[in-house]
């Protein structure tokens, strides 16, 4: 489907990555991982044809179409939501015009025997066939399903795109990309602007999609649920693992240990050989042996241990001063923004009762625009509620990490100046240490904020929270643009923090084990859920199922049952269902024969599956070793996997047939 061959990208004589090669097959789900700045986004741009590599090439088959979603994209402002999404169906719209033209021409002409008439018939047939192949009649339903899945509301379908915020505009572009249905998706941080429900919807969509997917994401749960293959870019090289992210982490650690052990063994052998050569170099009686050892050394393929990128944040929040027992309290709070500048009045939420006590770690979740950030602004005192009250407790000092860091930091200041201008007292002597803990070292502290990446800006904003001791940290999407390692370190630091934390995040893995209470903002109300984030998600899933059941039409009662009532209006006693007739001797014999055949088939399939799994595991281990990796081996692995999948399908069908006989 697509082949990446020996790609190298260099800037100023330094390689970003070199000689990267891999194949992308149909229906593969690939996670592209590596630290910020490793070259992941650059690689996607090259595959999408938007950037040229220093050397190497990307080849794709004729039927391969690529859909690319970058981290940031400008959305058109001259139309409404549904019309903008309809642009994804450019081919279908063109086919409709072709069908309309051909139909009109055929109706008007009478030269039924001419070549032109026959050509028109062929054009109409081809266009109609292609139109139905693309499911043209269903496009309005597809637009609605996709927009609802990504969190848009039906009443917003005719809203101008210019009135949506940046995060929602990215969703519009994602919706257009999904509706185009390319054979290969390239997604760069698609979950950054999605809420938890939309992320789960996108997971399901990508799992069931017929094309291939290459995605960059720092959401571990999203990667695990979507991908079945992981390509790591580290220290300028690419390593391919045929497993999801969490399994890749384990295999990577094992592989590195094996590399180190093999390297150390080889170094010991080389050292002993060199000692022998040096000791007997000038003894004529040993000259043949010395020459043999020298040739042996020359032929050895030296093992290189992968360079390990150990640069990690080293953070610990200052001890929190003691606050009152109640840190934040909202009583029947609500917020409605008045009509202004031609915009209608906007009701955000009402009736919110929220209590956050000292030491609690609480998550605010919900779709974008439901009021999470508005509530934070009420807590900070930047807004006054239009209903009820929101107050902070005694001796509460708030440290705030805002989602819009670009607006809060002056791009012309350097990294050091950004901290130096707000630091007060003795902490000013430790600014370089604090910046070093957040990976700003050497010349990095003299960089201007405007040239920093998204992840670097997030780290700098987090460093500002270290300048004084707070007892309430309010974090609005703190993990956006952070790599996996940085997120893990931040999570550990927050877990160890002895103050109170209020966090807005859509990253399930980050929230898991960190928060013990969840407040959900939904449909203008706020609901409390006790427990962790996965407890909340299970509850929401059950509630959604109940809501579907409530909205589903009740099954119609049989006419006979409706009439069959006693005179006092009570239902008559239910009649016993007639017993099924017993099987004849011949039928029983045939049934037993079928059961025996199915049992034998299942036993045989289970043996074959076990053997295939062993073979696949052995090949998998060989593929993990770069020294053994070949395209022939990779093809053999794919053939085995296909055969294994087919056997598993046969086993499932046979088991299902056996269960129909009442046998488990």
Automatic annotation (TrEMBL):
CDD domains according to UniProt: ABCF_EF-3
Residue span of region Disordered: 548-592
Biased composition (Low complexity): 552-561
ABC transporter domain: residues covered: 2-260, 328-548
Record keywords: ATP-binding, Coiled coil, Nucleotide-binding, Repeat
Pfam families: ABC_tran, ABC_tran_Xtn
Domain of life the protein comes from: Bacteria
Coiled-coil residue windows: 595-657
Composition bias, Basic and acidic residues: 562-592
Residue ranges of the TM segments: none
Molecular-function GO term, any one: ATP hydrolysis activity
Family in the record: Belongs to the ABC transporter superfamily. ABCF family. YbiT subfamily.
Entry protein name: Probable ATP-binding protein YbiT
Organism encoding this protein: Rikenella microfusus
Lineage of the organism: Bacteria, Pseudomonadati, Bacteroidota, Bacteroidia, Bacteroidales
């Amino acid at each position: 489907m697509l082949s990446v061959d020996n790609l190298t990208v260099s800037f100023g004589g330094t390689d970003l990555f070199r000689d990267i090669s891999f194949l992308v097959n149909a229906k593969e789900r690939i996670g592209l991982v590596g630290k910020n700045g490793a070259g992941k986004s650059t690689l996607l741009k090259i595959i999408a044809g938007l950037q040229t590599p220093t050397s190497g090439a990307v080849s794709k088959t004729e039927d391969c179409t690529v859909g690319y979603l970058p981290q940031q994209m400008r959305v058109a402002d001259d139309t409404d939501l549904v019309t903008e999404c309809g642009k994804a169906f450019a081919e279908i719209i063109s086919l409709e015009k072709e069908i309309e033209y051909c139909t009109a021409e055929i109706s008007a002409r009478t030269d039924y025997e001419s070549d032109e008439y026959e050509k028109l018939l062929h054009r109409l047939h081809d266009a109609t066939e292609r139109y139905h192949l693309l499911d043209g009649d269903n496009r309005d339903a597809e637009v609605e399903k996709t927009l609802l899945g990504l969190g848009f509301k039906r009443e917003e379908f005719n809203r101008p795109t210019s009135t949506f915020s940046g995060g929602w505009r990215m969703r519009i572009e994602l919706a257009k990309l999904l509706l185009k249905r390319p054979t290969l998706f390239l997604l760069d941080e698609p979950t950054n602007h999605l809420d938890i429900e939309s992320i789960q919807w996108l997971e399901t969509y990508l799992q069931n999609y017929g094309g291939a997917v290459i995605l960059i994401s720092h959401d571990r749960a999203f990667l695990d649920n979507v991908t079945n293959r992981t390509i790591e870019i580290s220290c300028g090289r690419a390593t391919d693992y045929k497993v999801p992210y969490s399994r890749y982490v384990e295999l990577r650690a094992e592989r590195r240990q094996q590399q180190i052990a093999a390297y150390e063994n080889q170094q010991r052998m080389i050292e002993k050989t060199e000692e022998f050569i040096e000791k007997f170099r000038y003894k004529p009686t040993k000259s043949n042996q010395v020459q043999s050892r020298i040739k042996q050394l020359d032929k050895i393929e030296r093992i290189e241990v992968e360079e390990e990128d150990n640069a990690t944040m080293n953070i610990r929040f200052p001890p929190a001063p003691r606050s009152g027992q109640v840190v934040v309290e909202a009583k029947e709070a609500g917020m409605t923004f008045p009509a202004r500048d031609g915009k209608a009045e906007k009701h955000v939420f009402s009736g919110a009762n929220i209590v956050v006590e000292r030491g609690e770690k609480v998550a605010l979740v919900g779709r974008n625009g439901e009021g999470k950030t508005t509530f934070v602004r009420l807590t900070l005192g930047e807004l006054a509620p239009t209903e009820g009250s929101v107050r902070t407790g005694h001796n509460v000092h708030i440290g705030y990490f805002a989602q819009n860091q670009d607006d809060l930091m002056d791009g012309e200041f350097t990294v050091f100046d950004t901290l130096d201008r707000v630091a007060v007292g003795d902490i000013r002597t430790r600014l370089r240490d604090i910046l070093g803990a957040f990976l700003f070292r050497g010349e990095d502290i003299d960089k201007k904020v405007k040239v920093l990446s998204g992840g670097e800006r997030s780290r700098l904003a987090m460093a500002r929270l270290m300048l004084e001791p707070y007892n309430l940290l309010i974090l609005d999407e703190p993990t956006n643009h952070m790599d996996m390692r940085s997120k893990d370190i931040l999570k550990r630091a927050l877990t160890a923090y002895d103050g109170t934390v209020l966090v807005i995040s859509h990253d399930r893995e980050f929230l898991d084990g960190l928060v013990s209470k969840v407040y959900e903002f939904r449909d203008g109300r706020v609901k409390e859920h006790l427990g962790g984030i996965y407890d909340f998600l299970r509850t929401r899933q059950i509630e959604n199922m109940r809501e579907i059941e409530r909205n589903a039409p009740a099954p119609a009662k049989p006419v006979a049952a409706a009439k069959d009532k006693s005179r006092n209006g009570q239902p008559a006693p239910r009649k016993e269902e007639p017993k099924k007739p017993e099987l004849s001797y011949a039928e029983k014999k045939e049934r037993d024969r079928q059961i025996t055949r199915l049992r034998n088939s299942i036993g045989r399939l289970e043996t074959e599956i076990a053997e295939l799994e062993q073979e696949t595991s052995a090949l998998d281990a060989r593929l993990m070793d770069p020294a053994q990796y070949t395209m022939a081996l990779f093809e053999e692995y794919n053939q085995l996997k296909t055969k294994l999948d087919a056997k598993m399908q046969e086993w499932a069908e046979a088991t299902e047939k056996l269960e129909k006989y009442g046998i488990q």
